[in-house]
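[agent] plan:
  1. take the single chain provided in the ticket
  2. run structure prediction with default settings
  3. attach structure tokens to the ticket
  4. add a short note for the reviewer (M.T.)
[agent] executing step 1
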Amino acid sequence: MADTILTGDITVRYLDDNRCKFFRWTGAATGTRTMNEFYSATATLLDETATGDDATAFTAETPVEYTVGLIDANDADPWYVQYELMQHITGGALRTAGWTRTEGSATGIVVVSVTSNTIVAADVGFDITYATDNDSGTLLEVIEQGATDYLVIRPDSSAAANSFDNSPTSGGTLTCNGNTATLAAASTTGEQIWANIYNVLPVDADTHAYVYQGTVSDATRARVADINVAGQDWWPEGAFDRLVYIRDYKTASSPIIDDGYMTVFARKGNTLYDSFEFQASNTSGGRNPIPLKPSADANHTTGYKSITTTAVGTDDFTVGNEILGGTSGARGILTQIDGADPTYTFHYYLIGDPQTDFQTAAETITDVDATGSATKDGNPPANQGPALAAWFTSGVAPTVTHAATTFDIDDDGTAEGWGYTIDCNANPLTEVYEWTQHVTRNGETGTTHTDGIEGEQYVGPTVYLEWSGTVTGTMTEGNDVTQANTLATGIIVSKDESLKQMLLRDTRGTFNTSDIVTDNDASGTVTPNTAATAFNAYTDAPLGRLAGGRWFGARGGLLADWLSADENNFQLIDSQGNTRTRPIAITLSISNLRGTAITDATADYAVMHRLTGSGGAIDKTEYSSTGGTALAATTQVVDTAISSDTPGKTTGAVLNIRDASDDYQHYRIRFSSWATSTFTLASFNLVAGATAGTDTTTIVYATGGFNAALQRGDLVWNTTRTAYAYVKTVDSDTQVTLDREIASQTTGDAIDFNVMPIDDDTLDDVYVSLIDEYPTAATANASIVYGSPIFYRVKVSNTRHTTKIKRFVTDDTTAGTDRNVRTIRNTDTIHT
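[agent] step 2 finished; step 3 output follows
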């Protein structure tokens, strides 16, 4: 016997019908009904003469919270509602009663995991047996999960013989309606709760909200999927109102999954994202409002894939419209259209769930929002935009590394603590931003840049801990932690035992400054007695926002290898929560230069030196050495802190030394960096000495490394001959030519580059060139931190090239803006 309710959307089968007593969805595949409709229609059905002897199915605790199962006193068998049916219900929560099986007293419902399964949905309602142990019951539902399926069974009785869990607990055969399955494990039993989630703010029609459930640090964390279709959920784009079960039916006693926590994400390409975490009621599930607010993103407009057409039927395609693959079913939003009829290249990002890309073979492409129709060629979709390395200015995509680091971003002399580093790889921040959104979009399952979890569910740090004591034992980045008493939990993003600070992500509960925090994997402990601060993640842009061309980093995120043009286009927040910016940076440059390769001896020589004042002399007493620097040393220490407006702090520049004990003999030495009062010279050592081919004006080093380590003008120090020269040209990776002879220089000589050529035992003058190079391009640049007005003199000369120029000399100044001096190239017709 069976009935239908709600115009056939739901079929009801009774206990007298082979002990079925369940509800099953038989309506349209995309149809829905509200929980109240389901409850009301069932109550009406059971309020009839023919069903008067059937047990009550539901109770309603509130208009949005219901219970199904054993409702009437002394009823022995609970009503069952199929999981697949619950995917069609909206508008309320549901919990079960009486599904838990207790041998000898409660028949309940059991779930059996199986492999090699041929039992299908058409077998539901038939007897199912496990002959190995004489178990028998009625099949209520088949949940297809791939290699392992799950069969929901109503045992024939509460007797132990019908528990589907006795020896052997795996390997035996279950039979139903002539089909079979192999038992994978003993049965499970327990109650179920479906929590209702729904949007309370408008969601764009093309935006698909998706849900993650389970503890992040455990393998149970997963994206909520259709009960019978792995890899996709069961609701459409746009507004959503659905029920999600919160008890794990696959595990004994059906425990609550992650204490009822779920995170709902809305991360469509080319939008500002949003996400919201909530905790469903562990008793009723509840009706849970989800306030997602995704919106258009003017800074993220590039698609990450493209396809090309070979023929156009109707030429009506528009950027912003949806395109559909006639064979593949792929759906994408057009971001750019190149070419002309009949050969268009469509750039797009994917939408839908699951996100299916266009096929390799030809197929019809239509514009869903217009009348466009075209034929795709036989090539696979190509990577574009932030998915393609060649799209980036440097040809290399950015990267993100999650680990504690320190860096003095504001040049105040104190390095701040940071939780992760975004390496721009010399790309503009506009490109970096699009890339960070790309690697955290819906559909991004990569974990390389998002601390080991799928990019589509990465949120970022949300708790900062600081302590005054020490860490006991080992606490490791990536491990999960729990605090005593509060039971607050999280995952370590970064841990700096020197600065005594830690960032946590995916946190639960509230941390305090009095209870011990334990690494659950390594057993190390620490008490965050200085600070335990919760803060909000950037839900719209997990790694950092872009507004008005300016980057606003999420807390704990350090930028590295940014372009000099972006020096003052970002604002960061260190791990401790302090806002940090770069000091005002400006670029001084000399243009219209003859710049060639380091192998060419005919480039200009361009210098820019600081003056003592407007129209004054070059400031050659900017610093004084401290004395005592040894011959061939690789550092030079000066008597005062190096000024913040000195170029080359991390990229290097040129140091000038005047030897006070030798009539102020001048030496030019390139350095690689500076900090506080120390210049680190750009030294390079011939480990085993010069090799065959070396003579008085040529140095050969068979090991190589000159191309990467040397530049024209670098100082050469021959320890064997106690003599110096400068590099005239870098002829190859293994050979350089000098600008002068070093008498008797030969194979085997000990030679260093860019080291101290004197025993600095006096207080010599030291000054830094703003620019000092033989350029390899048409412009020479220096990026400096601006502190006060700078007066400087530019000199450009070239008597090496066939076309010689008269030395160009001019003064200029800056009061905090970029400045360029264009070289006037007057040919010297007199020079011979």
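[agent] step 4 note for reviewer: The two ends are 113 Å apart (CA to CA).
[agent] ticket updated
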